[in-house]
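Q: I'm writing a short methods note and want an example of a predicted protein-small molecule complex. Could you take the sequence and the SMILES for zinc ion and return the bound structure as tokens? Please keep the output block clean; save any remarks for afterwards.
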Amino acid sequence: MEENWLDKVEYDLHGKMFLSQTFYLYKETVTTLSTTVENHFNKVMQEISNGLPSIIDNFEDGEDYEFDGAGVGEWTCMVCQVKQAKTANKCSTC
Ligand SMILES: [Zn+2]
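A: Understood, no commentary inside the block.
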């Protein structure tokens, strides 16, 4: 939302600026947005200080999230570029 509050301002016959109904509606929208963002931020901060319980809940569903390397197949040593068996967890050459 790219809007300028000055566009919501009106001028009377003498060129004096006054705040129109649109300005107050605009102000209300901005205030609501700020409150929403602030509430969300506070909620996230609260979650973080509680040790992210919603994430912990997801990890406690009985699934095994540990990476066992299954399905990776053979791999190449970054140092010597020699291909290694998929069962090896250390380079056989280095
Ligand atoms: Zn190696």
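A: Remarks, as requested: Strands lie at 9-11, 17-19, 75-76, 83-84. The longest helix spans residues 21-49.
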